[in-house]
Amino acid sequence: MGNRYRVRRGVIAGACALAIGLSACSSDDKKSSEKSKTTTSTTTHPKVSAEFQEYCDAAWKLSDNDGFPSEKQLQPLLDSAPAEISAPIGVAAPALIAAGSDPVAQFNAFAADDVEAAVAQINAWETANCKIPHDDPEPGEGATREIDPAAARVDVAMSEYDFTFDEPVAAGPTSFVATNKGAQAHFMFIVKLADGVTLDQMLKSDDESNTVGRWSSGFAAAGGADQEVLTLDLKPGNYGMLCFVSDPDGTPHAMKGMAKEFTVT
Description:
Blueprint: H1 10-19, H2 27-41, H3 53-63, H4 71-80, H5 86-99, H6 103-111, H7 113-129, E1 152-159, E2 162-164, E3 172-180, E4 189-193, H8 199-203, E5 211-216, E6 227-234, E7 237-242, E8 259-264
Parallel strand pairs: 1-3
Antiparallel strand pairs: 1-2, 3-6, 4-5, 4-7, 7-8
Helix pairs in contact: 3-4, 4-5, 5-6, 5-7
């Protein structure tokens, strides 16, 4: 349901593709996205079962566009949803329609746990039945989005535009448990920096070799009730925690200060 941001430009664009998906991440990436959109619109879509043709046609049209889906794009999905995904469509589409064109409301709607779960179900079905190549986010190699009772716990407070947690952080299995105290949706994107690379250098470079590990949580909606978890086995070294949700002006939160470097010992 909806598209995944297609442009791959270093770690920043990779994070957007991995964890945001429904909205462009910066003005430069929007330009590249427009080029990608033009190319995609001329692509012949795979043949699908006649039973699902109406829905798949509407889903492909939505997939060919960048940004959050509009009511005009979502209503045909509601009208033609196959029985297998009528329930998740009935959860996700009305919530996104209700958000209107307000980007803060859109991200908060998408961050709601029931909507995130519904979109994941819809995307899996569309990939299998409409042949739409959704790039759904995973937490990353060796990571989970569940609290490990045996792991150390690090409580993270998120706000505009900041991560706050106790330091230092010790090596070993660790559950980062994030609460969003801000007014916008946020998430944790954690990178392990290559030796000798600072977080500032990573943000200014397109060189993906500046990181040797990447992991992402789910979205946390505003209001403090939506808890998101990222559990991974930390190795000693320097790390960064970032949020690449787009601000209303199109700037990723990481570029507004929501990028925290920390050391694991």
